[in-house]
Amino acid sequence: MDAAIARMADAMSERGVALRPHAKTHKSIEVGRRQVGAGAVGLTVGTVGEAEVFADGGLDDLFIAYPMVPAGPKAERLREVARRARLRVGIDSVVGAHAVADALGDDRERVSVLVEIDCGGRRTGVAPSDAGPVAAAATHLGLDVIGVFTHGGHGYHGPDARAAAAEDEVRGLTEAAGSLRAAGVEPSVVSAGSTPTAFDSARGAVTEERPGTYVFGDRQQVALGSIAPDAPAAVIAARVVSLNTAARRFVIDAGAKTLTKDVPAYLAGHASIPELGAVVDRVSDYHGVVEVKDGGSLPEIGQVVLAVPNHICPVVDLFATFLVARDGAIIDTWRVDARGRSG
Amino acid sequence: MDAAIARMADAMSERGVALRPHAKTHKSIEVGRRQVGAGAVGLTVGTVGEAEVFADGGLDDLFIAYPMVPAGPKAERLREVARRARLRVGIDSVVGAHAVADALGDDRERVSVLVEIDCGGRRTGVAPSDAGPVAAAATHLGLDVIGVFTHGGHGYHGPDARAAAAEDEVRGLTEAAGSLRAAGVEPSVVSAGSTPTAFDSARGAVTEERPGTYVFGDRQQVALGSIAPDAPAAVIAARVVSLNTAARRFVIDAGAKTLTKDVPAYLAGHASIPELGAVVDRVSDYHGVVEVKDGGSLPEIGQVVLAVPNHICPVVDLFATFLVARDGAIIDTWRVDARGRSG
Q: Given an 8 Å threshold on Cβ–Cβ distance, is B66 in contact with A286?
């Protein structure tokens, strides 16, 4: 993890691009402190709940990179966290801008706003050419619009998709920044983000990158080529609880409530077990089933193995704590401070 | 939920079969009390961590229906919970029997043991004919073997698989019970379990059923035909945060960290939104993306919708609390007491 933090910080420093890591991956104040200590300008979060936790932890330069439509108790919570953090929020609609302005009331000048654009991921965000009109409407409501952001999520579609998605991020953001200028709003922040695209899109009009998963890595990032095969830094320690020698099958006590069922199209199975050259083929809540392939070795019942999950972000969210290891020894325990803060 | 609890309790009572619901679905002391209040003989759990929580809540007749191989701190915890609960545990190997006997030490007479058999789900459990030798070995170690259990997990393979999996449960358990008798161990408990198979396998040699998901139901159980289409009792309230009218796409603020990525082969998408006739097509951590089909209606940004998850068990595990509704009004808040207790 230390190496991953340093590698990304150095790469962004070399490119003259600000690094604002997405903290939804680790949800940990300890990890966030290390990212900021290595040069990150602040953190990205996905929810008001995450912003509350990191602000409480003293990591109070935060961007909620999500199209905010706060209402009811969440509007109250947004205003409260805006009073104790340097906060940016995302919008992708005039309705959203109204909701943010209403939620913040007289505190709206405390918060900066970025307009989200869709650069090809077909999720949230307006078309790049629509960023200016949304920004102008938000400005008219008294909001301080400082720029545009996007997430080239289609960089996750496979190893061949990364470069094109990064290109889409740069192109979409460049057009969106122009749209803001045409609407009379000067964009000081032009923000892209994802681990697969971060290295390639940190150029041109882009001023900031928001990768998250890089901090730990996972099986998916290895397959995408974002990190080295031996780089994943967060693994699941599981015990072999059942062994069928005749069927060449064994079961570990890590299942869907530990590894999740996140399986991208270009991966088979739910996790790898590198020390056995094995893959977890099926999971139920508390069981991970491995059908050992020809040439693979069978473990012993009771043996502890380390499994590399496909996607580490939702896995971390299932745990209360990290065991922190260095040189093969457990040296500390850290809390998953923002566990379950999905809203 | 009340109706589901009553329906299952009545069905098992009619069949003269004991009901021991699997509490991994709800992880809630309040819900467990209602199940026992309706006639359940006790609860099933999947981990020592769940057993600890329910024992603390006064629900202290518990079966850890999992092949136990306790070691280290978990062995200590098993012995501790065995001192304050009426406990049954599963084994599926002689190695496991040794580990349980070692963990319990002089307290081993406090705990009953059931041998798990594989009736076709290809997960844990020995072949039915091997149940007797494992039971005899465990008895030799001073353990009190009281019967056999299985989980016809292949009943989840599709709507046509339920009846055959139930038949496999009955056949496998009947053979396993005979194997125990041949080894000199009289099986007083012959336990099957799963929501898809519970109604069909509660017969013959079977003395106990352990369904879990029935208590809430989900989209998967509707598709399997285990429950009525309008039966799911636990839903996710989510807000529409983004709307692309031209692309006929909208996004809700419930994604993989809320709905999970559990998608059985016979379902498309990650959840249904019945009020809109829509399905959540894609999820990322905090986003659920809906591509509205022809004839489907578009919601408004800010609108709250109710989503029915594919598989409720891992969804519940992501939350700290339930909001409890009756007749459309929130009447209470219950804790997910055993949240994250996956070990």
A: yes
